[in-house]
Amino acid sequence: MKKQLLALSLGFMSIASFAQKNEIKAAEKAVKKQNFSAAVTAINSAESLIGNADAKTKAKFYFVKGQAFEGTNDLKSAAKAYNNLLDLEKKTGKKKYTDKVTPLLGNLIRNVSKKAVGQYNSKDYKGATESFYLTYALSPKDTSYLFNAAISASIAKDFDKALEYYNSLRTIGYTGITKTY
User: Fold this and answer.
1) What is the predicted pLDDT for the residue at 19?
2) pLDDT, the chain, mean
3) Based on CB atoms within 10 Å of each CB, which residue in 96, 125, 144, 152 is the most buried?
4) pLDDT, tens digit, 9 for 90 and up, residues 82-104
5) What is the DSSP letter of 181?
6) Global confidence as pTM
7) CB neighbourhood size of 65 (10 A)
8) Residue 72 CB contacts under 8 Å (≥ 6 apart), including other chains
């Protein structure tokens, strides 16, 4: 009985493995054809199965997921996928997609940051708040974007969001002090 259960469970695991790889391949093909909504659908169906995947499959999944969400202009999800990919490859030591993702992530950060500054200069403080926060989400190491989001929220009189951002800054130890040479 134990052997039968073991064989059955191994069978289900191999079926799940093939299913997730097929979904990732389908998403990859959809991205190449620039059919990003189909790619997101395939990625979402593979998402529940990816937890048990090997590092190579997870890396490919995050790379394709980032491309799919970037194509649908869901930049926050794209950045999260790209950052997950970079963390995974840093942890495993295998950097297959890092060289491809780093410039993509850099372009996302530049474009959103430029948009945020433009919105702030045109006195669209609510839009600037969202864009600055998105820039911070894309690049969490640069806390000045979170500070800019907090300032923009204050000017837009969205005090709850401003307080949330200021508390986040305090939690991470942001002082605003920088060295200038």
Assistant:
1) 54
2) 84
3) 152
4) 888 888 888 888 888 888 888 98
5) -
6) 0.73
7) 28
8) 36, 37, 40
Identify whether the C-beta of residue 68 lies closer than 8 Å to the C-beta of residue 30: yes
Contact 87, 68 (CB under 8 A): no
Among 7-11, 29-33, 104-108, the minimum mean pLDDT is found in 7-11
Say if residue 24's pLDDT is above 70: yes
The residue behind tokens 């069978």 is: 11
Find the Cα–Cα–Cα–Cα dihedral 13, 15, 21, 23, rounded to 10°: -120
Nearest to 28 by CA among 68, 58, 59, 55: 68
Contacts of 31 (CB under 8 A, 6+ apart): 39, 64, 67, 68, 71
Q: From CA 18, how far away is CA 55, in angstroms rounded?
A: 15
Q: What is the pLDDT of residue 146?
A: 94
Alpha helices in 33-97 (DSSP H): 36-47, 55-71, 75-92
105 within 8 A of 138, measured Cβ to Cβ: yes
Beta strand spans in 36-90 (E) = none
